[in-house]
Each structure stands twice: as structure tokens, then as C-alpha cells.
Amino acid sequence: MTDEQIKKVYDELVEQYKEISDHNTTLINSFGKTASKHFKDLLDFCDVTDKIELVDKPNGDKQNESYGIFKNVHVDQWSTGTEGDSFGGFIYANVKGQWIKVPYSC
How many domains does the chain have? Predict the structure, then answer.
């Protein structure tokens, strides 16, 4: 690949990550002033890997946990590495009567 082709690939990745970040920030902030703080607690040092969606119902296992406005948390996860210490999946939480689906990895 030429330097120009590599730059184009990286520019497209940056634009994609910006679009995902903007979408997720707007969605989470729409839930109120404390949403961002509680969302960080919900993630517990995991990374959001794509756009957060609104869904009709959760999947995965109920966690009996809540994080501020994020209630009734469910997690659907799987191992993503060969060592068994990396995970990915979806975190579901009910917030203000709506279910969110958060793609994550850690």
C-alpha cells in the first residue's frame, strides 16, 4: 500500500469512530445530566465497540445490578481470546422505560 492509501484507510477509521462516538454521546446524554456518570459505572472499564441501540427487550443473563438511572442490567457475553480472559458481547439496561443494547469488549 502507498502512503496515500494508508492515510485514506486511517482517515476513514477516524471518521467511523467519530460517528459512533457522537451517536453514543448524544443518546446517553439524552437521558439526563447524570446519565454520563452512571453510564461509565455501567461499563466498568469495558470499551463500547459500536453504536448503542434501543431495543424492545434484553437478552442474556440478569445481573441483579443497577447503576443510577440504568436499571435491570442483563449481559450477553462470550470469550473473545485464546486465553479466556477477554470478553465481548452486549450489556442491556433499562433506562427511563427504554432498553439500551451496548456492544462492548474488555
Answer: 1
